[in-house]
Amino acid sequence: MKYKLSVANRDIREQAGYAQRGNSWQIILAFVLAVIILSAMGILGTTGLIYLSQQEAAGWLLGLVGLVIVLIYLYVIIQMMVFGFPWSFLEMVDTGRYQIKTIFRPFRRRPGRNVLAYIFFELLLALVSLLLSLVSGVLFGLTSYNFLPNQAWSLTAQMPDLAAGQELTQGLLAGDTRLLILAGISFALWLVLTLIYLVFIYGFAFSPFLPYDSETASASALLGISRQMMRGNKFKLFRIHFFYMVVPYLLAFLFGLVLMATSLLFNLDAGLFGLLAGVITFILVVVYVVFGLRAFTATAVFYRNYIKQYRLELNEAFPELNLTTWGQGSETEIYQQEDRPQVPEETMAFAVPDELKVDEASEEDLSPSERAGAAAVFTEAEPSLDADPGTVEDDLPETTQVVDPQHDPELFDHMDQSFSDDIRGKDEEPQAIFDPEDDLTYDEKTQLRDNPTLYVDQSDDKSSKD
């Protein structure tokens, strides 16, 4: 399965900005709250260990308590940081509102599955890192042995200290061909391994978001499904992240040049230089925070657009996902912020024809039964679904009347007749619901509608009386 997201990166960035509008302070407050909670846990755990050590507790007890504290700390980090914050960003994309309480939701929704998914990911990451380290070490060792001079190799092998580094640096500056080739090979090797590492990491980019939409998928399935979903989309998501990373780094580089140039031109003293460096650092921190939050939001927007585009295909390929709805059963778009009016299920709206409209003066002269009959009648002509929306609105009556068909028997009769006309066709002659020769009152028709056998009984009674 390889489905590429068709939404342009520019549109994803715009949607991320729209979703984050008015929510930045709530997100920062959520991060501050998470830092306070984790810091408090760390302080309490350290204090407890120090107290036990002062009480000359047994070594095994200190080790056991320390292990429990570490496990609890990791558990909170996994639920709140690894899954909680991605879920909060995804909910913000769905609803347009950031809620701090969402970062605690993974504690209540299959927390064991979240922990297993994180453990599986860390095991895979450790395995890949180990393989890459072994490959890079072997390749670098073989290359160094073939290209470095024997003296430099012996220095590097026996004295991996400052002396060996200085000799290699002097050789590079002197233009030693072998050292230059080694440096080029080392850089190429580092670049290839970094790309492999990024490809591996981006393959699981959707893993924290999938449990938000799926209650049924297992921990191992989350990782496998994420890898399948990211096929053909890794570089697209990387370009979005690179856009938010390159701006802060460019600003840091430019501010650094400005700071150095200002110090050299104006011969700033240490105090003024430190003040200027502090201001620049504060600006850079703000820029990093803003672009970092936008990168998180863009990732959530990327995921949500992918789910909306390929939900049916994903349900067919991975039935365990069960993506019938998303966003905790809510499909509210970020563009639909206002609440829609709620109409009771037992009511229906019908348009009142012009010939049945009455002004306020004449309406007072009508009896209650006449008012009910006038309100129950609705137009037979309905606009075509294929007609132009503009013309349909122009042809609609100026006023509408909301009535309850369950409390108006004649309205049911009229509806039955209208539906029968639609099914029968205009060419056929309509048949009356009641016999025209029957002189029934309104109450008798109501009873007849509820119990058709009364009609036979009434006919028998009338014939016997005659």
Structure description:
This protein has about 475 residues and is mainly α. The chain has 17 helices and 2 strands. The chain has a two-stranded antiparallel ribbon with strand order 1-2. Helix 1 (about 10-20) packs across helix 3, helix 1 (about 10-20) packs across helix 11 (about 270-315) and helix 3 (about 60-95) crosses helix 11.
Give a quick set of tags describing it.
two-stranded antiparallel sheet, mainly alpha, 466 residues
Structural Rg? 37 Å
Number of distinct helices: 17
Shape: extended
Main sheet characteristics: 2 strands, antiparallel
Average pLDDT value? 74
* Uncertain runs: 151-161, 326-340, 377-387, 430-434, 456-466
Q: How would you write the strand order of the largest sheet?
A: 1-2
Portion of residues in beta strands equals under 5%
What's the SSE pattern?
Answer: HHHHHHHHHHHEHHHEHHH
Helix content: 55-70%
Distance between the termini: 83 Å
Secondary structure category: mainly alpha
Total strands: the figure is 2
